[in-house]
Amino acid sequence: MTLADLLASAEDTPDPRAYISRVKTVMAEFERLDATARIEDTHYFNHSAIPDFVVTWEGERAKREVFLRHSYESVDDADDEQYLADADAMVVALRPANEEPEARESSFTVGSRLLVTDTAAVDVIGSHESAQARPLTTLVQANFLRGARGHVGPARAEQLLQMDEALTPAAGEQTQSLIAESFAEDAAARITRTAELIALALDREQQAAPTVRGQLSLAELRSLLPWLLRQENARSNAAFWRYAGTLFTFEDLEGIRHDLAGLDVSPLVHANAGQWHAKRAYVVLLVSSDEPEKPRDGQWSFENGALGVDIGSHRLYLAHRGTMLKKRPGSVSPAWARVQPTLDGQRIGSIELKGIRRSVRLTAEESPDIRADVEEVTQSLDDAYFVDRVTVRAPAPGNQEGLTNLEIRYDEGLVVADTGATLTDLSSAALNVLELGRDLAPGAVDSLLGIATPGAPPREIEA
């Protein structure tokens, strides 16, 4: 049903209070335009100065006031375009006009963020299913509540949903003008740079340096990544994914994990495993099934809420949020003789050795590697040792200096890096050390992470 149909049902009552309550319930449908929005009822209705709703976004200071009016005539009677011109507000006419509102004489001030629209236009904006829509369409939907401005009736709403070819030579200045007229500066910038990223992803021969800077918002990622990961031209553009990885973090990727469920995100992981960082790794034994499945070895995807990849009979999971991967019940501490070969080439920061007669904990106070101390203890003391935990050290991720600690918790089946470690180092520690390298073919970890054999580096997109 459309909003017009729902409002017609709401009007089918002689009780004013029941009418107001029904209208308020109908307007809660606005949340379908933006899943990240939270709409608060102020318990006022059709007040000249106090909004009917206030829209906020979790973790952000931004808010937008929504005023309901019975019709465009009511908008005129309240003189909303004058009194709300400087407000970041949204005025919604419950009954659409006979003519497009953008054809009406406007008293908007230059730079005003005020939006005047109606329920018919809102129906048009919300009519496209996000799962099937192209990125600019979903971004228009996501930014309508947040940053649409000016007069937007049904006809303009249709135009806004047809901008998937925006900023191409054929569209030119007309499309840019439409974006600028219909959205506040920050929202217009998000839509414009999404269009540029689409062009960059689909054109592997593009030589021009991109102008996109800063961090992409979750709304931008939610509209852009699922669609691009389904486009073969984009999937094979490794240079694009490396560049895109500088515009958001692995934690951001986790923030839209439900939108990426079931998709192969290997291009993203391969391109950014050495620069993105996370805090936990976990390996689980896959449960065998009688149903034949397409082999997925080496294919990174979000399952059970976390990023993972199948490798043989196991699945490796990586996560930035510590609560996403819990300790494994029934884990067993391996013998030191089994652990020792897996630490070749590793810098050891600390280790807990549990013997039959005594337990020993060795920790580096100043030395970056206590391998010699560990070997001295295990060789000099006549005991059989098992390892509960060992900490290995790797270069700190990103632009940080020094080393980062990766604690291998055999007793919990986890690798934990409290200050973060690259996806490459976490994967290596989980598969080679925590899982004792079992069933791994030579170069298997490098293959999972898309690390190429030595040779000429691929073309990069220059920032």
Structural overview:
The structure is a single chain. Helix content is 33%, strand content 20%. It folds into 2 domains: 1-248, no CATH class; 288-448, no CATH class. It has helices at 3-10, 16-27, 72-78, 80-83, 119-125, 135-147, 154-160, 172-182, 185-202, 218-228, 232-235, 238-244, 250-255, 266-272, 336-339, 371-380, 423-434, 444-448, and strands at 37-41, 53-57, 63-69, 89-93, 115-118, 150-152, 277-285, 300-303, 306-311, 314-319, 347-354, 359-363, 386-395, 403-409, 414-422. Mean pLDDT is 83; it is low at 453-459. The chain has 463 residues and is of the alpha+beta class.
Overall, the morphology is: elongated
Structure classification: alpha+beta
Q: What number is the mean pLDDT?
A: 83
First-to-last CA distance: 47 Å
Helix share bin: 25-40%
- What is the alpha-carbon Rg in Å? 28 Å
Largest sheet: 9 strands, antiparallel
The portion of residues forming beta strands comes to 15-25%
Give the count of structural domains: 2
Write the layout of secondary structure elements.
Layout: H1 3-10, H2 16-27, E1 37-41, E2 53-57, E3 63-69, H3 72-78, H4 80-83, E4 89-93, E5 115-118, H5 119-125, H6 135-147, E6 150-152, H7 154-160, H8 172-182, H9 185-202, H10 218-228, H11 232-235, H12 238-244, H13 250-255, H14 266-272, E7 277-285, E8 300-303, E9 306-311, E10 314-319, H15 336-339, E11 347-354, E12 359-363, H16 371-380, E13 386-395, E14 403-409, E15 414-422, H17 423-434, H18 444-448
Parallel strand pairs: 3-4, 4-5, 5-6
Antiparallel strand pairs: 1-2, 2-3, 7-10, 7-15, 8-9, 9-10, 11-12, 11-13, 13-14, 14-15
